[in-house]
Amino acid sequence: MEDLIAQIRQTARELLDQERVEIVLGFETGPVALRSSPCFVRTATEPDRLTWGPFCGLNLAVFLNNNPRRVAVIAKGCDSRAIVNLVKERRIVRENLVIVGVPCQGMIARNKVERLVGGAEVEQVQIGRDKIVAVAEGNTFDAPIAEMLRDSCLECEVPTPQYYDILLDRATARQPYHGATSSQPSKLDCSERWKRFETEAAKCIRCYACRNVCPLCYCRECCADQSNPRWIGTSCTASDNQMYLLMRALHLAGRCVDCGACVDACPVGVDVRYLFKRMEREVRDRFGYVPGADPSQKPPLAAYALSDPDDFITSPCESVNVRDRP
Questions:
Q1: CA 77, 78, 79, 84 torsion-angle sign
Q2: Is the same domain home to 141 and 271?
Q3: 50, 33 in Cβ contact below 8 A?
C-alpha cells in the first residue's frame, strides 16, 4: 500500500509541475477512524497530503459534474465507470480530465465495523494482509477483511479501472470476490418482497445523504425538493418514503455503477442498493447494457432497435416471474 501511495503522490506532483491540470482530486487521512476525506491538491508542494486505503470509499466523480477546470482524479473501478456515464451524459468535458486509475482491493463498510465493535466508538483501526483489527473504548476486535467489505465490493466484477489515462500499480489488481450479499436474487414472492421494501423505506429519515453522494444525481432541482408541483411530500410518511426510494431507483436505472456510496452515507442503514441492483439486472438482461462499461455504447434510453424486448408491454403478466426476482 505504501508503494501505491508513493506512486499517487509522484503522479500528482508531475501532473501539477507539467501544468497538465489545475487540481488533483484524491483522498487524505480523515479526522476520525474509518474515514478518509476528499482532498483537493492545487500546488506541487501539496501531494504529500494524498493517501490511499480501504476507507477511500466516496465516489470522487461526484465532484466532477459540470466542472470547467482541468482536473486529475484518483479513480477506482466504480469511479471510472461513473465518469464514463457522466461523459456520455455530457456532464464532463473529457479533454479537461486526467483519470489516474488505481486497482481497488475493496472498501471497508463502516456499518459492518460498527456492528463488530457493538456500537462503541472506534478509536483506531489497523489493516493487515487478511485481517482488520479495531480498537474501541479500550477493547480490541478483529475479523477477516472479506467479512468487513462493502456488499458492492463483494459483488464488484471490475475492481480495476478499465477507462483511464494513467493506471498505477497494475501488479496489485485483484480478481472479483463473487461474494453473496443481500442484493442477490432470492425466491421471495410478491408479498415478501413488498414487506422487505416497506421495512427498508420505514427507516428513511429523508436526509438525502444517498442522493447527495451519488455522482449521477445531478439535477438542478430534484423532484423530491420541488414544491410546484409537489411530487413527493417532505414528511417521513410511509408513502412519501416509498415514492422517494422508487423515484431514485427508476432515475438510476441503467446508470447506477454500484459504488455503494449511498449505503455507506446513510445514517440509519437503509439498504437502497438492492433496489438499484434489481434495476441493473433488468437493464442488463433486456438490453445487454452495463453502466460505465463501454464508453462507445449508447445508454439504453438513448438507443432503439426493433429487436428490443417488448414482452413487458404485450404480455406483462407473462414477462415477469415474481419468484425469480429479488
A1: positive
A2: no
A3: no
Cβ–Cβ under 8 Å, residues 124 and 141 = no
Which candidate, 8, 61, 127, 91, places its Cα nearest to that of 259? 61
Alpha-carbon span 257 to 77, nearest angstrom: 9
What element of type H or E holds 209? helix 209-212
Q: What is the pLDDT averaged over residues 228-251? A: 91
How far is the C-alpha of 52 from the C-alpha of 102, rounded, in Å? 9
Residue 47 pLDDT greater than 60, yes or no: yes
Domain residues for the domain of 231 are 2-109+149-313
In a domain, 322, yes or no: no
Closest listed residue to residue 51, CA positions, set 17, 13, 1, 95: 1
Spell 198-225 as b/e; 16+ CB within 10 A means b: eebbeebebebbbbebbbbbeeeebebe
Asked whether residue 136 falls in the same domain as residue 163, the answer is: no
* Residue-wise DSSP of 151-194: HHHHH-S--S-SS-SEE--GGG---------TTS-----HHHHH
pLDDT mean over 192-196: 90
Q: Is the pLDDT of residue 183 over 80?
A: no
Higher model confidence: residue 186 or residue 88? 88
For range 1-16, the mean pLDDT: 94
Three-state DSSP state, 90: coil
The confidence score (pLDDT) of residue 180 equals: 56
* Nearest-angstrom CA–CA distance, 36 and 34: 7
Mean pLDDT for the stretch of residues 128-154: 92
- β 97-101/71-75 pair status: parallel
d(CA 12, CA 111): 32
* Cell numbers standing for residue 158: 471490475
